[in-house]
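Forwarding these from the shared drive since the link keeps breaking.
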Amino acid sequence: MDGEVTHRVAVGPLGVELEVLDGEDLFTAAQRLGYRWPTVCGGKGTCRTCFVQVEEGAENCSPVGPLEREGIEALRRPVDGLTRLACRLRVEGPVTVTKRGVRRRVQE
C-alpha cells in the first residue's frame, strides 16, 4: 500500500488497530484486513447490525448521511456523531470505536 493514505481505527473490545484507506468505509476495511464484522445486509446500510460507538476522534469521522441517519434513528439512538454505521463511516484521522462481535476470520 505504498503511497496510499491510511488512517488508524482502534476497535475495542477486541483491541486491534485497522489501517483504513482514505475514502474507504470501516466495514469494508475490516473485511479487507481479514475481520468478520457483524452484519446481515453485507454492508448496504440497511440492517444496522454493524453500528459502532465512537469513543474518540469523532471530529475525524465523515458526516452522517441520510441513509445512516435513518438507521441510527431506527436504533433509537441520538444522531450525535457518536453512534455510527461501520458500513457508512469513513475516517480522516485516528478514531477509536467499540463494537462487540468483531472477530479475526479463521483461515481455512
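-- next protein --
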Amino acid sequence: MNFIRNTIAVLVGLGIAGLIITLGIRAFPQWVTFDAFAPFEHWQRFLFSMKDDQAFFGFLLFISGLGTTIGGVATAIIVKYAKVAYAILIGFIMLFIAMLDVIIFPYHPTFYKISIFLTFFPFSWIGGKIVEVIYERNKQKRIAEKMNKPK
C-alpha cells in the first residue's frame, strides 16, 4: 500500500510543480506568444521568441524553484516515511526534465544552464524540510501535552 501512496505522492508533487511553472509563465501577458493554456505545447517556438529575454529565464528559474518547493511539500505531506527523500526525488525528476529541455532546445542562456543545478535540489530539499520540521514540532507538542496531562 505504501508503494501506491508514494507513487501518487510523487505524481501529485510533479503535477503541482508543473502547474505552478505553467501559471508562472502565463503570469506576464507580454510573454504569452501562444494560444493554448500550456506553453509546453509550443515550447520550441516559445523559447525561440524568448531567447534574448534574460528576465524571462531568471523568472523561470525563480518560478521553477517555487514550484519545486511546493511540489516537494505536497509530496512530503502525502508520503508516510522518508519525507525529505521523496521531496528531493521531485527535485531530481524536475532537474532531469530541465536538462532534457536544455539539451533539446538550444535557446537557453548560459546562466540558466548552470543555475538549474543550483535550483531544483535545494528548493525541493527545503520543501521536504518544511514538512519534516512541522511534523516534528507537532509530535513534540503531543508528547508534551501527554506528559503535562493531569492524572
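The longest helix spans residues 110-148. The helical segments are 2-26, 43-50, 54-78, 83-104, 110-148.

- D.
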